[in-house]
Write a structure and sequence with these properties.
There is one protein chain. The protein is mostly beta strands and about 290 residues long. It is built from 1 helix and 21 strands. The strands form 2 sheets. Strands 11, 12, 13, 14, 15, 16, 17, 18, 19, 20 and 21 form an 11-stranded mixed beta sheet that branches. Strands 1, 2, 3, 4, 5, 6, 7, 8, 9 and 10 form a 10-stranded mixed beta sheet that branches. A hairpin with a 5-residue loop joins β13 and β14. It is elongated and about 70 Å long.
Protein backbone atom coordinates (compact mmCIF):
# COMPACT_ATOMS: atom_id res chain seq x y z
CA UNK A 1 0.00 0.00 0.00
CA UNK A 2 2.83 2.39 0.74
CA UNK A 3 4.22 2.22 -2.80
CA UNK A 4 1.03 2.12 -4.87
CA UNK A 5 0.20 5.83 -4.50
CA UNK A 6 3.61 7.08 -5.75
CA UNK A 7 3.47 4.62 -8.65
CA UNK A 8 -0.03 5.83 -9.52
CA UNK A 9 1.09 9.45 -9.32
CA UNK A 10 4.08 8.75 -11.56
CA UNK A 11 1.89 6.91 -14.04
CA UNK A 12 -0.59 9.80 -14.16
CA UNK A 13 2.24 12.29 -14.55
CA UNK A 14 3.57 10.26 -17.46
CA UNK A 15 0.14 10.11 -19.05
CA UNK A 16 -0.29 13.89 -18.69
CA UNK A 17 3.15 14.48 -20.26
CA UNK A 18 2.24 12.22 -23.17
CA UNK A 19 -1.03 14.06 -23.86
CA UNK A 20 -0.64 16.77 -26.51
CA UNK A 21 -1.42 20.35 -25.53
CA UNK A 22 -4.89 21.45 -26.56
CA UNK A 23 -5.95 24.76 -28.13
CA UNK A 24 -9.28 26.55 -28.21
CA UNK A 25 -9.69 28.96 -31.15
CA UNK A 26 -11.75 32.12 -31.44
CA UNK A 27 -12.19 33.77 -34.84
CA UNK A 28 -13.00 37.45 -35.29
CA UNK A 29 -14.90 39.09 -38.14
CA UNK A 30 -11.75 40.83 -39.43
CA UNK A 31 -10.06 37.50 -40.18
CA UNK A 32 -7.93 37.19 -37.03
CA UNK A 33 -7.58 34.15 -34.75
CA UNK A 34 -6.88 33.79 -31.02
CA UNK A 35 -5.44 30.53 -29.67
CA UNK A 36 -5.84 29.56 -26.00
CA UNK A 37 -3.46 26.69 -25.28
CA UNK A 38 -3.33 24.48 -22.19
CA UNK A 39 -0.10 24.73 -20.21
CA UNK A 40 2.53 22.37 -21.59
CA UNK A 41 4.10 21.65 -18.19
CA UNK A 42 7.48 22.84 -19.45
CA UNK A 43 9.40 25.91 -18.32
CA UNK A 44 10.57 28.69 -20.61
CA UNK A 45 9.33 31.01 -23.34
CA UNK A 46 6.60 29.40 -25.41
CA UNK A 47 5.59 29.84 -29.03
CA UNK A 48 2.66 28.80 -31.14
CA UNK A 49 4.11 27.65 -34.46
CA UNK A 50 2.13 27.37 -37.69
CA UNK A 51 3.80 25.32 -40.44
CA UNK A 52 2.53 25.49 -43.99
CA UNK A 53 1.97 21.97 -45.18
CA UNK A 54 4.27 20.72 -47.94
CA UNK A 55 6.17 24.02 -47.84
CA UNK A 56 9.29 25.15 -45.98
CA UNK A 57 7.46 28.05 -44.34
CA UNK A 58 6.33 28.78 -40.80
CA UNK A 59 4.91 31.58 -38.63
CA UNK A 60 5.75 31.82 -34.91
CA UNK A 61 3.53 33.65 -32.40
CA UNK A 62 4.42 34.27 -28.72
CA UNK A 63 2.32 32.36 -26.17
CA UNK A 64 1.61 34.51 -23.10
CA UNK A 65 0.21 33.24 -19.77
CA UNK A 66 -3.36 34.45 -19.15
CA UNK A 67 -4.17 32.51 -15.96
CA UNK A 68 -6.13 29.33 -15.29
CA UNK A 69 -3.30 27.27 -16.75
CA UNK A 70 -3.70 28.83 -20.21
CA UNK A 71 -1.33 30.39 -22.73
CA UNK A 72 -2.61 32.75 -25.42
CA UNK A 73 -1.39 33.65 -28.91
CA UNK A 74 -3.00 36.05 -31.38
CA UNK A 75 -2.86 35.91 -35.15
CA UNK A 76 -4.13 39.35 -36.26
CA UNK A 77 -5.74 39.76 -39.65
CA UNK A 78 -2.87 42.08 -40.61
CA UNK A 79 -0.30 39.25 -40.32
CA UNK A 80 -0.03 37.64 -43.75
CA UNK A 81 -0.69 33.91 -43.89
CA UNK A 82 -0.20 32.47 -47.37
CA UNK A 83 -2.98 30.41 -48.89
CA UNK A 84 -2.83 26.77 -47.85
CA UNK A 85 -3.11 24.43 -44.86
CA UNK A 86 -1.11 25.29 -41.75
CA UNK A 87 -0.44 22.70 -39.03
CA UNK A 88 -0.38 24.05 -35.45
CA UNK A 89 2.32 23.27 -32.84
CA UNK A 90 3.38 24.46 -29.39
CA UNK A 91 7.12 24.95 -28.77
CA UNK A 92 8.72 25.72 -25.39
CA UNK A 93 12.23 27.12 -24.81
CA UNK A 94 13.53 26.05 -28.20
CA UNK A 95 12.51 22.43 -27.65
CA UNK A 96 10.87 20.14 -30.15
CA UNK A 97 7.49 21.48 -31.32
CA UNK A 98 4.51 19.39 -30.19
CA UNK A 99 1.44 19.01 -32.39
CA UNK A 100 -1.63 20.75 -30.97
CA UNK A 101 -4.89 18.91 -30.38
CA UNK A 102 -8.15 20.78 -31.09
CA UNK A 103 -10.27 22.19 -28.30
CA UNK A 104 -13.38 24.33 -28.82
CA UNK A 105 -13.57 26.42 -32.00
CA UNK A 106 -15.73 29.56 -31.68
CA UNK A 107 -16.35 30.53 -35.31
CA UNK A 108 -19.65 32.39 -34.93
CA UNK A 109 -18.19 35.65 -36.25
CA UNK A 110 -17.37 33.96 -39.57
CA UNK A 111 -21.02 33.18 -40.39
CA UNK A 112 -22.32 35.64 -43.02
CA UNK A 113 -19.09 37.60 -42.75
CA UNK A 114 -18.93 40.68 -45.01
CA UNK A 115 -15.37 42.07 -45.12
CA UNK A 116 -14.83 45.61 -46.33
CA UNK A 117 -12.38 44.67 -49.08
CA UNK A 118 -10.78 48.08 -48.56
CA UNK A 119 -7.28 46.58 -48.46
CA UNK A 120 -7.74 45.08 -51.92
CA UNK A 121 -7.78 41.50 -50.64
CA UNK A 122 -9.80 39.11 -48.49
CA UNK A 123 -8.05 37.08 -45.77
CA UNK A 124 -9.80 33.98 -44.42
CA UNK A 125 -8.51 31.65 -41.67
CA UNK A 126 -10.60 28.71 -40.47
CA UNK A 127 -9.29 26.30 -37.80
CA UNK A 128 -10.31 22.68 -38.31
CA UNK A 129 -9.63 19.14 -37.12
CA UNK A 130 -7.53 16.91 -39.40
CA UNK A 131 -8.30 13.27 -40.05
CA UNK A 132 -5.59 12.41 -37.53
CA UNK A 133 -7.32 14.49 -34.84
CA UNK A 134 -4.86 17.40 -34.88
CA UNK A 135 -5.44 21.15 -35.11
CA UNK A 136 -4.74 22.91 -38.42
CA UNK A 137 -5.74 26.21 -40.01
CA UNK A 138 -7.01 26.60 -43.57
CA UNK A 139 -5.99 29.96 -44.98
CA UNK A 140 -7.07 31.85 -48.08
CA UNK A 141 -5.67 35.15 -49.34
CA UNK A 142 -7.47 36.40 -52.42
CA UNK A 143 -6.87 39.72 -54.18
CA UNK A 144 -9.43 40.43 -55.51
CA UNK A 145 -12.09 37.88 -54.47
CA UNK A 146 -15.41 36.79 -56.00
CA UNK A 147 -17.67 35.23 -53.35
CA UNK A 148 -20.47 32.87 -54.46
CA UNK A 149 -23.40 33.68 -52.17
CA UNK A 150 -26.17 31.68 -53.82
CA UNK A 151 -26.37 28.79 -56.29
CA UNK A 152 -29.71 27.68 -57.64
CA UNK A 153 -30.84 25.58 -60.58
CA UNK A 154 -32.26 27.22 -63.66
CA UNK A 155 -33.89 25.52 -66.65
CA UNK A 156 -31.02 23.30 -67.86
CA UNK A 157 -28.45 25.48 -66.15
CA UNK A 158 -27.09 27.17 -63.03
CA UNK A 159 -27.76 30.64 -61.60
CA UNK A 160 -24.90 32.15 -59.56
CA UNK A 161 -25.21 35.24 -57.38
CA UNK A 162 -22.26 36.73 -55.55
CA UNK A 163 -20.23 39.72 -54.49
CA UNK A 164 -16.81 40.93 -55.56
CA UNK A 165 -14.22 42.32 -53.11
CA UNK A 166 -11.13 44.36 -53.78
CA UNK A 167 -12.14 45.65 -57.20
CA UNK A 168 -15.08 47.24 -59.01
CA UNK A 169 -17.52 45.71 -61.48
CA UNK A 170 -17.40 47.40 -64.88
CA UNK A 171 -20.15 47.32 -67.53
CA UNK A 172 -17.97 44.88 -69.50
CA UNK A 173 -17.89 42.36 -66.61
CA UNK A 174 -18.48 38.74 -67.57
CA UNK A 175 -18.19 35.22 -66.23
CA UNK A 176 -16.01 32.49 -67.72
CA UNK A 177 -16.18 28.72 -67.62
CA UNK A 178 -12.78 27.18 -68.35
CA UNK A 179 -12.46 23.48 -69.26
CA UNK A 180 -9.86 22.00 -66.92
CA UNK A 181 -8.37 19.68 -69.52
CA UNK A 182 -8.38 21.60 -72.80
CA UNK A 183 -8.48 25.15 -71.47
CA UNK A 184 -11.49 25.91 -73.70
CA UNK A 185 -13.43 29.01 -72.63
CA UNK A 186 -17.13 29.78 -72.61
CA UNK A 187 -18.58 33.10 -71.50
CA UNK A 188 -21.74 34.17 -69.66
CA UNK A 189 -23.20 37.66 -69.44
CA UNK A 190 -23.03 39.24 -65.97
CA UNK A 191 -25.72 41.42 -64.42
CA UNK A 192 -24.02 43.80 -61.96
CA UNK A 193 -25.34 46.10 -59.26
CA UNK A 194 -22.57 47.90 -57.41
CA UNK A 195 -20.44 45.04 -55.96
CA UNK A 196 -23.10 42.34 -56.52
CA UNK A 197 -23.03 40.13 -59.61
CA UNK A 198 -25.20 37.44 -61.14
CA UNK A 199 -25.10 35.20 -64.20
CA UNK A 200 -26.65 32.07 -65.65
CA UNK A 201 -24.56 29.24 -67.06
CA UNK A 202 -26.31 26.96 -69.55
CA UNK A 203 -25.25 23.34 -69.19
CA UNK A 204 -26.19 22.41 -72.74
CA UNK A 205 -23.23 24.26 -74.28
CA UNK A 206 -20.64 22.53 -72.06
CA UNK A 207 -18.81 19.47 -73.41
CA UNK A 208 -18.24 16.73 -70.80
CA UNK A 209 -15.51 17.47 -68.25
CA UNK A 210 -14.75 19.76 -65.33
CA UNK A 211 -15.41 23.46 -65.84
CA UNK A 212 -13.87 25.98 -63.42
CA UNK A 213 -15.83 29.22 -62.97
CA UNK A 214 -14.16 32.63 -63.06
CA UNK A 215 -15.26 36.26 -62.97
CA UNK A 216 -13.79 38.98 -65.19
CA UNK A 217 -14.86 42.12 -63.22
CA UNK A 218 -13.43 44.53 -65.80
CA UNK A 219 -14.02 42.38 -68.86
CA UNK A 220 -11.32 41.01 -71.13
CA UNK A 221 -8.75 43.67 -70.17
CA UNK A 222 -8.92 43.10 -66.40
CA UNK A 223 -8.02 40.34 -63.93
CA UNK A 224 -9.49 36.85 -63.95
CA UNK A 225 -10.86 36.06 -60.47
CA UNK A 226 -11.69 32.53 -59.33
CA UNK A 227 -15.24 32.26 -57.98
CA UNK A 228 -15.29 30.60 -54.56
CA UNK A 229 -17.20 30.40 -51.31
CA UNK A 230 -14.90 31.32 -48.43
CA UNK A 231 -16.82 33.66 -46.11
CA UNK A 232 -18.33 31.25 -43.60
CA UNK A 233 -17.18 28.78 -40.95
CA UNK A 234 -16.87 25.64 -43.12
CA UNK A 235 -13.24 24.79 -43.88
CA UNK A 236 -14.08 22.08 -46.46
CA UNK A 237 -17.29 22.70 -48.41
CA UNK A 238 -17.13 19.65 -50.67
CA UNK A 239 -18.57 17.02 -48.29
CA UNK A 240 -21.00 19.50 -46.68
CA UNK A 241 -22.56 21.53 -49.51
CA UNK A 242 -23.99 19.35 -52.26
CA UNK A 243 -26.27 20.34 -55.12
CA UNK A 244 -28.68 18.49 -57.43
CA UNK A 245 -27.52 17.44 -60.87
CA UNK A 246 -29.52 18.01 -64.02
CA UNK A 247 -30.02 15.30 -66.65
CA UNK A 248 -30.32 16.66 -70.19
CA UNK A 249 -29.70 15.90 -73.85
CA UNK A 250 -27.06 18.06 -75.53
CA UNK A 251 -25.24 18.14 -78.84
CA UNK A 252 -22.59 16.01 -77.06
CA UNK A 253 -25.17 13.39 -76.07
CA UNK A 254 -27.08 12.82 -72.83
CA UNK A 255 -25.23 14.19 -69.77
CA UNK A 256 -25.60 14.92 -66.11
CA UNK A 257 -24.36 18.31 -64.95
CA UNK A 258 -24.13 20.17 -61.68
CA UNK A 259 -22.01 22.48 -59.51
CA UNK A 260 -19.67 21.51 -56.70
CA UNK A 261 -17.01 23.09 -54.52
CA UNK A 262 -13.46 21.83 -54.88
CA UNK A 263 -11.25 21.00 -51.89
CA UNK A 264 -10.04 24.61 -52.13
CA UNK A 265 -13.68 25.79 -51.92
CA UNK A 266 -13.56 27.09 -55.49
CA UNK A 267 -16.69 26.73 -57.62
CA UNK A 268 -16.70 24.31 -60.54
CA UNK A 269 -19.24 22.44 -62.67
CA UNK A 270 -18.89 18.81 -63.68
CA UNK A 271 -20.52 17.52 -66.86
CA UNK A 272 -20.58 13.72 -67.14
CA UNK A 273 -21.70 11.77 -70.21
CA UNK A 274 -24.41 9.23 -69.55
CA UNK A 275 -22.87 5.92 -68.52
CA UNK A 276 -19.50 7.48 -67.66
CA UNK A 277 -18.03 7.50 -64.16
CA UNK A 278 -17.91 10.92 -62.52
CA UNK A 279 -14.33 12.05 -61.82
CA UNK A 280 -13.03 12.06 -58.26
CA UNK A 281 -11.45 15.33 -57.18
CA UNK A 282 -8.11 15.28 -55.39
CA UNK A 283 -6.94 17.28 -52.37
CA UNK A 284 -6.45 20.41 -54.46
CA UNK A 285 -9.80 20.07 -56.19
CA UNK A 286 -8.25 18.76 -59.38
CA UNK A 287 -8.80 15.38 -60.95
CA UNK A 288 -5.85 13.01 -60.29
Amino acid sequence: MTTSAPRTARRRAGEDAAMPPRADCIADSAGGLTFDVTETGEQGAALLVLRRRDRDEEVSLPLTPVGNGRLRAALPSGVALAEGRWDAYAQVAGGEPRRLAPGVNDLRSLVDRVPSGSLGHVAVRIPYVTRQGNLSVRSWLRAPHAEAHELRPAEDGLVVHGRVYGTALAPAARAEARHRGSGALLHAEVVAEQAEFGFTLAYGVLPPGIWDLWLRPAGESGPRVRIARLLDDIADKQPVLTYPRAALDTEYGPVQAGPYFTRDNDLSVSVVAKGAVAPVTGADGRTP
